[in-house]
Amino acid sequence: MTADEFRACCAALPGATMDIKWEHNEVYSVGDKMFAMLGLISGNVGFKVDPARFLELTDLPGVRPAPYLARYHWISLAHPGVLPVADLAALVGESYALVRARLPAGVRKALPPHAA
């Protein structure tokens, strides 16, 4: 997956927004909560994963615990091409779903529908 494909994957999710944080990271959020990011300088991508898969995924080459966010089960990929396109797209979708599920009910109801 290229960086542009990663951007498109994140932006296609219902209610997803993008802004720049920490001067050089594109951060994708739902309901003001981050679910994915792309380093504009480093090319790294990061996103939240299911706690049950955290250790499994961080054992893969090119995948590591995300700095500062690993305690929340975020991983970092050296670049979007580390994982196959379908796997990365599925993981980004899961990250979105994990974050969306933890939003307050009122915020979730205000978002466009999402078929999980």
From TrEMBL:
<keyword id="KW-0238">DNA-binding</keyword>
<dbReference type="GO" id="GO:0003677">
    <property type="term" value="F:DNA binding"/>
</dbReference>
<dbReference type="InterPro" id="IPR058532">
    <property type="entry name" value="YjbR/MT2646/Rv2570-like"/>
</dbReference>
<dbReference type="InterPro" id="IPR038056">
    <property type="entry name" value="YjbR-like_sf"/>
</dbReference>
<dbReference type="Pfam" id="PF04237">
    <property type="entry name" value="YjbR"/>
</dbReference>
<dbReference type="InterPro" id="IPR007351">
    <property type="entry name" value="YjbR"/>
</dbReference>
<protein>
    <submittedName>
        <fullName>Predicted DNA-binding protein, MmcQ/YjbR family</fullName>
    </submittedName>
</protein>
